[in-house]
Structure formats: structure tokens, C-alpha cells
Amino acid sequence: MAVHDDVLRYPPQVLRQYALLADGERGVIVGPRGDFCWMCVPRWDSDAVFSSLIGGGGMYAVTPEEPFVWGGYYERSSLIWRSRWVTTSGVVECREALAFPGDPGCAVLLRRIMAVRGDARVHVVCDPRPGFGAHGLRSPRRGDDGVWRTDLGGVHLRWSGADDASVRTTAHGDRRLETTIEIPAGDHHDLVLELGDRPITGRCPDADRLWRATETAWRETTLQTGTVADRDARHAVAVMRGLTSGGGGMVAAATTSLPERSGAGRNYDYRYVWIRDQCFAGQAAATAGVDSLLDDAVRFVSARLLDDGPALRPAYTVSGGPPPEQSSLDLPGYPGGHDEIGNRVTHQFQLDTFGEALLLIAAAARRGRLDDDARRAAHAAADAIEQRRHDPDAGVWELEDRVWTHSRLICAAGLRDLADAVPEDPAAKRWAGLAETMVAETAAFGVHPSGRWQRAADDPRNDGALLLPAIRGAVPPDDSRSRRTLDAYVEELTDDGYAYRFRHDDRPLGEAEGAFLLCGFLLAIATHQQGDDEQAFRWFERNRAACGPAGILSEEYDVTERQMRGNIPQAFVHAVLLEAAARLAGPPCGPRKTAPLR
Predict the structure, then answer these.
(1) How far is CA 492 from CA 405, 487, 588, in A?
(2) Separation CA 581–CA 231 (nearest Å)
(3) Tens of pLDDT, residues 163-201
(4) pLDDT in tens, 122-162
(5) For site-directed labelling of 62, which of 348, 524, 539, 565 has its Cα 20 to 30 A away?
(6) What one-character DSSP code corresponds to residue 310?
(7) At what angle do helices 352-366 and 405-421 cross, to 10 degrees?
(8) Is the peptide bond before 322 cis (omega within 30 degrees of 0)?
(9) Rounded to a whole number, what is the distance in angstroms from the first to the last CA of the chain?
(10) How far apart are CA 111 and CA 82, in angstroms?
(11) How many whole angstroms from its chain centre is CA 76?
(12) CA atoms of 198 and 131, how far apart (whole Å)
């Protein structure tokens, strides 16, 4: 399998080295050599125009010509990233962003190269290749205004600020635009790249105006202080906002096919909206008082419930359609993995999503943010639970169909929470009664002889998902089953401050899979509920540090190698970090449902 020139010149890095730019409609993964190595256009689940991250063609790089060491940081409460290179003679920064909020049909990539100390000299490569590298530059034209324009097989390009660029041909016959830009000390130079699904007409945008609009838009989506880790909480809000489209759907991650473990075959496409993840995000936003993200989650989930009712899919595209069937591309993949697009989850039934949807809607009710669609969606979810509560489902970890304990208890939690949140609803008493029935039914098969919850009637193991029933209120935190589940989980499924989903086999935990950061933050919330703040902060601090300079969190963390694993950024991990940061700032006992209205 051929390795593309882009991959050889800008090889893949460990995941901690990458940053994210996002505008709600698509995202860019930025490497330490200033390489934009992943982006899909026009939408999250479209074909990639930059795919060197997984061995394909296409990238856009700004790189100092001198030897350098790399660093970077986000501007406050935003996904405006500053790549920073300390060279042998000075300091160069590149301020980078997708113009925000994004246009669904056209990505606008902003790069401002700044000579912070000393003169700067950078090499620039512009080589978008739609179709995961299948289509290269087609007769690029530089107009009298110095602006480059071309059609890349249905993706239209306009590039301004690179008047001196020229078309170069690589040893493999690929064509790309390249230039070298020199910037005097203290000065800056702007590049604006537009990529869209329609011809790009009109005057070229003014870089200063685009930067001001993007800064303003990010300031409007921010978090008030009041958590135990305001900087990380604000960053979590920015990541979640960047992953949330104009229709309200939040993709699970920006990428596809980044392996959870080398050679293990666990490579998935996460460029879709998982209903459960969206509900986690909305509940975290309600807890922290970020109403814009709460409203987005309620709007998207309500629409899917009203459309599909008891046939609700676990995941959707941001436009509300089903994810495509899983297939492979003829690409080398990220090292240790292989290339996959599409997701087979669309054929699964996951009962707990209905319970999570009710918890989300109840949180919105407490914030005074329910509309008629959300109320009707709540009835649809409750009816679906009543209709399908005995059906085997794939569960929270998308495994084989079983009658999972967690799924039933989360549905009970949702029914009870909704009944408490909208007691005036004529169905509230029925919902509360059904919740009691489901807890009793589940206890008949879901309690281990030791008195803790177990995964299923035929699976006595413990599971990180079994921390959620007490957190969400299916049973009280001081219920003996809650305490015994928590105690046994800490004993059996944690190691050195990290938490794991469940025990796969007799191997040490870290040999079967990476630590699951979602579980680590749930453990922080669960121990805080029990009044043990010392341990709660221990779990919280350990897990929030499992990132690189950009503060991006993945799904799993390889404790032995201290490396991130899986797709980035993992939205539900950032969501539960936000919830934990808000909860740990509150009273030590009892659930903190939502932030007080301001």
C-alpha cells in the first residue's frame, strides 16, 4: 500500500501532540509541524480533504524553516489555537482558527503568522485533496488580485494571502501550492483558505474582520466561574461547542479510525452524533449553567425522538440521518490501526438512551427551558421505555444484546427525574410508578450475592456503567447496593488513580484495554456523592491530566506508555469532566441536578 508524500514529510505524531480547530460544522486536527492533517468538507461526516493523519493525501502546513521546538496554547474560552515555535534565532507563532460560527457549506481557515521575536521565515504547503486524497489540484489559477482559485473535484478552493505561491510537482507527480513567507520582527502575515461545496464568489473576506467576528462568537459561548477547575471547564465547553453543529447535534469526535490499541482491530468512525453522548453533554451543561449547549442537546434529541419514537437509533449524522454502513478505505491508516468510515451502531437498539433523554429533558425543565417539542419528546421516550423495557439491548458499551442492568436502571432514573421535574404533567404519577417497578424488576436479577449491582443476570461482573444509577438517581447514593457497587468497583476496576470499564479476562486491567477516562470522572462524581472529597479530587485530578499541551482528551489512556488512545477529542469525556468540575464545587452529598438560574 503506497504511502503518500504528505505522510513522509509530515509523519503522524502521538495523539497528545495534536490540537483541534472547529466551527461547529467541521474540525481540523493540527500537528506540531503546523500541519493541518485532518479535515472533512463540507460537514463532519463528509469525505476528508486533509487525511494525512490516517495515511491519505491532503494537508495544509505552515512550518518554520529553521530548527525549532514546538508548543502551543488556546486563547481563553475558545478553539483559537496558537502554534508556537522557538527556533534557533527567534520565536514564531501561528494563530489558527476556523471562522466561527461555521457556514455549513464552506469552511474558512484562518492563519496569522507572527514574528514574535526576530524575523520569521516559514514554508507553506497548501494541498487539499478531496475524497480522502483521491482528487488533487486541478489547474489552479492565480488571478490578477493574487488570489488562487480552483475546483477540486466538487470542492471549491479560494486562497488569499499567498500571492507568491507557485505550483510544485512532487516526485510522485502530485501537484501542490507552495511558498516561503518572510515576516519582519513584530509583524504578521494572514492566510485565508476557503473550501466549500459550491463556487466561492464575491469579494475575498477581510482577515481582520473574520478574526474579530470569530473572537466575538467564542466570547458569547463561555462558562461563568464556579467550578473546581475553571480553566479546564471552560476548555471543555469550547470543545463541546466546537463539535456542535447549527442543528444542535454534537459529534462524538472529529476523527475516524484512530486505534484504541495497536493491532487490536478496535478502530471506529466517531464523526456522528451518539444520542447518549449528546445527553451526557446536555446534562453537564445544565449542571454548569451553560444554557446554549443544553438547548442544542434538547433540540437535537427531541427531534430524533419525535421522528423515530421507540425505533430511536443510537447514533445519527448531524443532519439527522443514519450513519452509513461501515466500510474501509484503501489507506495505510494511523499507525497501529486501519481506515474505517461509517458505523454499524445504526443497527443496534440501546434502551438506556431513552432514560438518558428523559434525564436531559428533566434537566432542561429545571432550568425553565422546555418547549412543546421537548415535552412531546419526553412522552415519546417514556412510552418507548414502557413498550420496550424487557427487550435485550446492546447496552452502554455496544456489546451483544442482553438485558443489561445499567440500561433498566437508567430508564428508571429518567422516569423518576422527569416526574419530579414536571409534577404538573398528567403522566407524572405513571412515570414515577413505572420507575419503581423497573427498579424492583431489575433488582430481581441484577443484584450480585455480595449485595452490589451486577452487569446482567448471566454476568456477575462489576462495570463502570453501574456507577451511573446512583449518580442519576435510580437509587439513592446511600442505598447499600450503591455503596457496595462503588466499593467493589474501586477494589476491582481501578489502578493507580485510573478507572476501567470492566474486566475482560484474567489479564491485568491495563493489558486488556486503556483506562477509560469517562469512568474516571464518573468515579470522582460518585465518591463526591458519598462525601469523600479527598478521593473525589484524587480521581478528578488524575484523569484530567491525561492529555497533552492542547488539553484534548481521548476515550482511553494507556497508563503504561502514558499515551492517549482512540479518536480525538472524545466529546463525552470533556462533558463529564465539565459535570465533575461543577459537582465537586457543590455540597458533598446528594446529586447536584443543575446550576442555579442566574
Answers:
(1) 18, 9, 24
(2) 10
(3) 999 998 876 777 899 999 999 999 999 999 999 999 999
(4) 999 999 999 998 888 878 899 999 999 999 988 999 999 99
(5) 565
(6) G
(7) 20
(8) no
(9) 57
(10) 9
(11) 19
(12) 16
